[in-house]
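Progress note, sequence design subtask.
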């Protein structure tokens, strides 16, 4: 587990995706998320773009200049990231109650 992580609590929905991308570019591998933060969609879209950009570059075997490498995601895969997603206790209680009543 990485020692330093990027928290997304109270992150602006319009900026959190860019923050995720920049954090991963500079080396962050731990991202803190929660449904309670109401920005999961934006975070998911940013991660999807990162993973897709890596898939599109995987066939390129030419060596790139340092300027071209700047800003790339260094072939980050999902398994390279430690993503914490808190499950709300209230949701767990709802599902337990629902399963009990059914």
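Output:
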């Amino acid at each position: 587990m990485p020692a330093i992580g990027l928290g997304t609590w109270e992150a602006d929905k319009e900026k959190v995706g860019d923050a995720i991308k920049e954090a991963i570019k500079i080396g962050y591998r731990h991202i803190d998320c929660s449904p309670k933060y109401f920005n999961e969609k934006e975070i998911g879209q940013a991660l999807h773009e990162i993973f897709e950009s890596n898939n599109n570059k995987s066939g390129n075997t030419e060596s790139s200049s340092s300027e071209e490498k700047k800003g790339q995601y260094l072939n980050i895969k999902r398994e390279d990231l430690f993503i914490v997603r808190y499950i709300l206790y209230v949701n767990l209680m709802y599902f337990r109650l629902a399963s009990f009543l059914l």
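The longest strand covers residues 30-33. Work on this subtask will continue into the next period as scheduled.
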